[in-house]
Amino acid sequence: MNHLFLDNSLWRNIYCVLAGESAECAARDYSSGFLPGGMEWLAFLLAAAAIIGIVINAVLGGVIVLIWGERRLFGRFQSRTGPNRWGPFGTLTSVADAVKTMFKEDLVPAEADRILFNLAPVLIAAPALLVFSVIPFGVGTYVADLNVGVLFIMAVTSLTTLAVLTAAWSSANRIAILSALRSVALLISYEIPMALALVGVIMLAGSMALGDIIAAQGIPFILVQPLGFFVFFIAAMAEMARAPFDLTEAESELAAGYLNDYASMKFGLFFLAEFMAELSTSAIVTTLFLSGWKGFDPIPSHFWFAAKLIAVLFVIIWFRMTLPRLRVDQVLKFAWKGLFELTMINIIVTAVLIAIWPQPTTGQLWIMAAINWPVAIISIWGVSKLLGTPAYENSQPSADAPTYPVASESIPAASVLGADKGGD
Amino acid sequence: MTPVMEVSALTTIAFWAASAMTLGFAAIVVTQRDVFRAAIALAGSFLGVGILYFVLSAEFVGVVQILVYVGAISVLMAFAVMFIQDIASGSRPAQGRLVGVAAAVLVFAALAFTAYNTEWSSQNELSPDAVVALTEGYYEVGEGDDIRVELTEPAGDNDVVVANGGAFVESTGAVGVLLVREYMLAFEIIGLLLVAALIGGLLLMRNPPSSNKTEKGDASV
Questions:
Q1: For residue B34, which residues of chain A lie inside 8 Å, CB to CB?
Q2: What are the TM regions of this chain, as residue ranges (chain A) (predicted)?
Q3: Chain B contact present for A159, CB below 8 A
Q4: Measured between CB atoms, does B170 come within 8 Å of chain A?
């Protein structure tokens, strides 16, 4: 059997406590175990089950806390109190919501394709959980350190598209189909800048394994790869389909989109998957750009990871609360004409820098950062100049020629007002 | 040194489970009349093939299989399916059944012939040293026609030494090196082909044959 997994402390502790006097654990100072010799395969299976249980429950617990924190923060951002009825500071609100969701009636529309309708929540929750299998939560605390970790994350998150399509199609609902069309366009478009933004990080680290990427971060890669971070963060927000990119379930336009016909715990799974995606995105950003669990010494690595994770979550919630929803054509144009170009600039600049310093030391990383920041600022400014809506020339409307703020290229102001006002 | 690729009972179980998944979903694809369900089952079949690659330690190929086939091609198929009439009752049965059966038999014969005639090297037939060299890496020592393979790096030698990663340890890196060194031309040609396909698609979309000339002038978005 492959015993390389014993380099991982999460596996080793559970396996060796169970495995008895096996040869692999003897060398690692575990004297005796619970199972008799020759039962290593059972120890392997039990350890795997235990680790899966730990990670899934930790993630679900994290989601419960996240929902509470997000709603409290929403309250703050909107100058109101937020949930505060159940438990101290409303901490039990999410628990009450979970219980309520579970006991609701489970409705299935008469026209729905029952098999696919029941399959879709599973299809959406499974990939959201799978992402956590490659994330290092602390020193030696991970389920697996695949040598294609980054690519694995991209592959697994791309499965969401199929789940959304299945949910929409199986519920036999026009509004759900409209939502799925938007969702597929959104997810497929933003997958490309999201993957390309990570190429810079992969080139700097020389590896796609998350462990190696953390080890390569002499300074956090957010300093060396500002453009990559900018694009990845926005694309990841879009992949989560949260505001300002929540056009797939836009309440004011599509009721709830593909979630329209789901009730009870099936809706609960979609809801969970959404928050798990938020959690996993923050974990990925923490690992790839904020040097993961690295920190200085007296504080354990797991706390560093948690602190950085919460900081990223705060920024995501802040974004969600601040920006209004974008239109579907604006969103797609931004991905293909804006973010895509920025990733290309980032890849070319990083490739040149890597050609100069193939295996950068911390000092060389600082030099790269000093080069990359001006490049990032200039290119973001340039792209926003090229793409952005031109500023209105008359900020003060005059009485005889009123101007209306119609901020769109596809609907020129002139055609809306029914008169040619000149200019574009 | 423990051999990395020793076939354990768990690997065997994983192999049969993934194979059963692939074949089972494939059977659903051909028997299911509802086209959308068939498309979803096809995604499951692709996923089974991806898991098989993982079982065979080809992580890179496995992940790319999931990324491309399950994440993109299945979605495309499910999308295309929506334009078919009468999805629930299924499409019309294919007309040329005889041709279909003949094609299937020919493809199966070709695959079976290739598989039967390939010399599969089992780990039992390799020497222990060869297994270590394949799984944990080896060193090529010497130049030109006079190259010998060593398991450990020779010290105090004037010969040229080239370190090789094991085939199963560094498959991702090996794929990358092969793509940009040995198969550079093929890689670039495929890239060119994809760009041509993209531009072709854009051209088809921009000039629909039914549009008249006054509209063409405005198409500058």
A1: 113
A2: 41-68, 122-144, 150-172, 184-206, 218-238, 267-290, 302-319, 339-357, 363-383
A3: yes
A4: yes
Question: Which contacts qualify for A179-183: CB closer than 8 Å, 24 or more apart?
Answer: A179/A248, A179/A249, A179/A254, A179/A257, A179/A258, A179/A260, A180/A248, A180/A257, A180/A258, A182/A247, A182/A248, A182/A257, A182/A328, A183/A241, A183/A248, A183/A257, A183/A258
Clarify whether residues B81 and B143 are in a common domain.
no
pLDDT band at B123 (very low <50, low <70, confident <90, very high): low
Residue B212 pLDDT > 60, yes or no?
no
pLDDT at B216: 43
- How many Å lie between the alpha carbon of A277 and the closest alpha carbon of chain B? 17
Residue A148 lies in a domain: yes
Q: Of B58, B86, B114, which residue is a domain's last?
A: B86
Question: Number of structural domains, chain A?
Answer: 2
Does B115 reside within a domain? no
Domain boundary among A96, A124, A146: A96
User: Given an 8 Å threshold on Cβ–Cβ distance, is B9 in contact with A41?
Assistant: yes
Cβ contact, residue pair A169, B64, below 8 Å:
no
Is the pLDDT assigned to residue A74 strictly greater than 90?
A: no
Domain of B28, CATH number, reads: 1.20.120.1200
**What is the C-alpha separation between B139 and A353, in angstroms, rounded?**
30
User: Is pTM beyond 0.80 here?
Assistant: no
Is residue A179 less than 8 Å (CB to CB) from chain B? no
Residue A55 sits in which domain range? 1-96
Q: Pick A6 or B53 by higher pLDDT.
A: B53
Residue B93 has, within 13 A of its CA and on its CB side, a CA count of: 4
Query: Using a CB-CB distance cutoff of 8 angstroms, which residues of chain A are in contact with residue B37?
Result: 113, 115-116
Contact B52, B8 (CB under 8 A): no
B141 and B191, same domain (yes or no)? yes
pLDDT, position A17: 73
Segment A379-417, tens digit of pLDDT: 888 888 887 766 655 555 555 655 555 554 455 545 555
Q: Contact at 8 Å (CB) between A10 and A23? A: no
Does the residue B212 lie in any domain?
A: no
Residue A201 has pLDDT above 60, yes or no: yes
ipTM of this model? 0.75
DSSP element (H, E) containing B122: none
Q: Which domain holds residue B74?
A: 1-86
- Report residue A335's pLDDT band, with 50, 70 and 90 as the boundaries: confident
Does A184 contact B at CB distance below 8 Å?
Answer: yes
Domain count, chain B: 2
Chain B residues with CB inside 8 Å of A146's CB?
A: 59, 63
Do A321 and A372 sit in the same domain of this protein? yes
The answer to whether the CB atoms of B40 and A161 lie below 8 A apart is no
Q: pLDDT-based confidence at B112, cuts 50/70/90?
A: very high
Same domain, A36 and A156: no
Q: In what order do the strands lie in the sheet with B161-164?
A: B146-150, B138-143, B161-164
